[in-house]
Amino acid sequence: MIVVDRLSLTAGHFQLTDISLQIAAGEYVVLMGRTGSGKTSLLEALCGLRPVRAGRILIDDVDITRHDPADRQMGYVPQDLALFPGLTVAEHLSFALRLRRIAATEQRRRVTELAELLGITSVLTRSVDRLSGGEAQRVALGRALAIPPRILLLDEPLSALDDVTRQEMYLLLRDLKQKTGVTTLHVTHNQAEARELADRLLILEQGRLTEVATAHDGPKTPPVP
Amino acid sequence: MSLSPQRIATRRRCSDAIFFTTLGLLGGSYVVLILALLTADALFTTPGHMWQVIQQPEIQYSLRLTLVTCSISAILSLWVGTALGYLLSRYQFPGRWLIDTLIEIPVVLPPLVLGLSLLILFHLDWGGWRLEDALRDRGLPVTFHVPAIILAQFAIGCAFTSRTMRVTFDEINPRAEQVARTLGCSRAGAFWQIALPQAQRGLVAAGVMAWARSLGEFGPILVFAGATRMKTEVLSTSVYFEWSVGHLETAVAVSLLMVVMALGVLITLRWLGVERSR
Predict the structure, then answer these.
(1) CATH number reported for the structural domain that contains residue B106 in this entry
(2) Residues in B 20-39 with any Cβ partner in A closer than 8 A
(3) Which of B36, B78, B121, B217 sits between 20 and 30 A of A84, alpha carbons compared?
């Protein structure tokens, strides 16, 4: 369970004040809002890249508000993906694993598993500088999922893709949701995308969060053990 | 009465021709000056004489010392300049503007003043304690010794590496380093594993630039290290030495040697494509 309790932060010329939300384990929450409404700043605050003025962030009742980004175990996929130039796809998928000094055989197993899940097995040895938009998106997702994150933070993951690739990514995200059950906060300003994927839909407007009805009224996707 | 389209086109062509001729003449005059300088140098001596000059033990010593000191000072400048450049590019902290201004001072300061300042720093009496004496007692005399050459070159070279590395890091999106931190990297890890590999071209360019600046350094070296034959003589002081005793041909030959080295550096810089970012 992720709890954001009366979080306030300053981002440039605007402020977010007293933002509160709860995301249950395995839930897929979509956060909508206009450009400049503070969606990205909220994601950055959650993963520790932006300091908060007040409030708390709790994961399973542990206050992680002041924790270093490295200690939060959150998977972050920024809008521009921020892949590491010069590294191969496999090196991206194993990046977090290497940092944790996981055994080489286990790293290989995990990389293979992720590559299959994301459909990027054929480009594992390719440098990320030579990937298509869809492939790059999958690599960024895989990099964030390598160590199963406590929450996956997606910042407009489909915005820069063409229609066909976007459709493929919809299916992939739905597939990921079912297979991994990873708790996800997905930021977008695309309504169709939001209604397609959301268990719950939130709107960030003028520094306030509002919950709106979603297309999914059924039970939440159960996490896969 | 309006002009016909043909006349408008003719006028535009005339205007373009005048514009390009003016640009060509103004810009070309400087190019001609540089070419004339190099040609005059080349005509003043012969390859045979240049070779003779290079064979002289004093010039060979000077060449070796130049290569060694320039390389050491460039490496030092690169280390310090990379740290400063990254710090100024990535972090906001109190006094940042002051540091930013301070590191530009060696660039605008007259070189002779920089040398004099170094000399004073090492010989200033701090209540009975002098930096030069303290170092000399530990077996590391600086003033009028080789370390003084390196320090004088470093003092100016580091200003250039800091600036180049700052621009380099400014051009690299910090987002990748941030993502690396969410994956478990420390700040240092993100710097070594993500930022530095992306800054490779800037690093080489900054190193080459620091090396080139060190090669051309004269004033601070003369004041702080002196120009003792076979001791603290580098190529720039060799030119001064030879000229001051009337050996103009030798001075020109050494100058040409420096021109060749400087051209090598410029070609490397062009090859790295950093001319655009300067």
Answers:
(1) 1.10.3720.10
(2) none
(3) B78
Q: What is the ipTM of this complex?
A: 0.89
A70 neighbourhood in chain B, CB within 8 Å: 181-186
Residue B186, chain A, CB below 8 Å: the answer is yes
Nearest CA in chain B to A151: B182
How many beta carbons lie within 10 A of that of residue A182, not counting itself? 22
Contact (CB<8Å) A72/B175: no
CA dist list (Å): A215 to A30, A171, A212, B70, B154: 12, 16, 10, 69, 66
Do residues A67 and A48 make contact, with C-beta atoms less than 8 angstroms apart?
yes
Please give chain B's pLDDT, 278 residues, in tens. Answer: 677 888 889 999 999 999 999 999 999 999 999 999 999 988 888 888 888 988 999 999 999 999 999 999 999 999 999 999 999 999 999 999 999 999 999 989 999 999 999 999 999 999 889 999 999 999 999 999 999 999 999 999 999 999 999 999 999 999 999 999 999 999 999 999 999 999 998 999 899 999 999 999 999 999 999 988 889 999 999 999 899 999 898 999 999 999 988 888 888 877 876 544 44
Domain carrying residue B39: 1-44
Contacts of B197 in chain A (CB under 8 A): 85-86
pTM over 0.90: no
Does the distance separating the beta carbons of A70 and B185 come in below 8 Å? yes
Kindly list the distances between the CA atom of residue B163 and the CA atoms of A10, A60, A100, in Å, as whole numbers in the listed order: 30, 46, 35
Same domain, B57 and B1: no
Count how many domains chain B has: 2
The CA-based angle A179-A181-A187, given to 5 degrees, is 115
Same structural domain, B52 and B136: yes
Nearest residue on chain A to B179, judged by CA atoms? A76
